[in-house]
């Protein structure tokens, strides 16, 4: 029962993340770079900080925790957060050229596989005594493979969509649709986004041990990763503010209340995926396989729900029944990938 509860919590977090772009559509009179960094303050600083505080027992502080942790692990966690930030930037571009459904599918699928594999591999490079490669069991590898199969099937559906629709129909669904360009960007986004889980692997011992509730143990590391990602995004967004002369966005007082509200909502929805991941893992401790695969499962479920939103937003409108069938098969395979490894 605990495993089912854990997977359901992760699924709720995935649904929230897949919904985080909906509030952004309500933001008024701000350029992309302006609203992106403001929602990022909530998504990568405010809510992760509140989450990390849940891991701090009475009589202790967050600074005490970071000060007593291995400085190498702390900085490596932040460093991979910086790299993940690059993935976050290109992630948005992938949806610009492919749409919410297909963009998230390819980017998050790549992120799921590489994030799961790279963490233990790099830990083994720096700390061979930990024998981190032992985490990559046959069941884990099989789970990653099934996830990639599901992503590949959805990719095929995307290719079928690109070839079957006229240019006018593509633009009607996704304004700047460009499958080759979007595919390249989505793969880059997925590769760099996988660094998030690598950062979590380096920071998984940054907690108060038995004093920290198992459900909250990864939240201090999550804050370090998102802090690194915030730095990357802030540099780029402020550069764009300067380049595009959009500093004036922040002086539009009449839209601040509206935009702050929807930026905060987008931020909390985005952060919910990693808050849910931490809580969910607290119920998966009896299954080492699912603990290792939890990040992969989160990304796979993100893809499932992003495609649900893609259907709701009519991004697949005008596609043939065959294309929709292929899409649905891919979604089903991704859902199955969350449970099959546990049966091995």
**Number of helical stretches of at least 4 residues:** 14
H/E element sequence: HHHHHHHHHHHHHH
Low-confidence stretches: none
**Could you tell me the mean pLDDT?**
84
Distance between the termini: 18 Å
Radius of gyration: 20 Å
Based on DSSP secondary structure assignment, what is the total number of beta strands?
Answer: 0
C-alpha geometry: globular
Structural class: mainly alpha
Largest sheet: none
**What percentage of the residues does DSSP assign to strands (E)?**
under 5%
Helix content: over 70%
Would you mind describing this structure in some detail?
Helix 9 (195-202) packs across helix 10 (219-244) and helix 12 (288-312) packs antiparallel against helix 13 (321-337). The protein has 14 helices and no strands. 77% of the residues lie in helices and 0% in strands. The mean pLDDT is 84. The longest helix has 56 residues, at 71-126. It has 344 residues and is mostly helical. It is globular.
Task: Provide the fold topology.
Elements: H1 2-18, H2 21-24, H3 32-53, H4 62-68, H5 71-126, H6 138-164, H7 167-173, H8 179-193, H9 195-202, H10 219-244, H11 253-281, H12 288-312, H13 321-337, H14 340-343
Helix pairs in contact: 1-11, 1-12, 3-10, 3-11, 5-6, 5-8, 5-9, 5-10, 5-12, 6-12, 6-13, 9-10, 11-12, 12-13
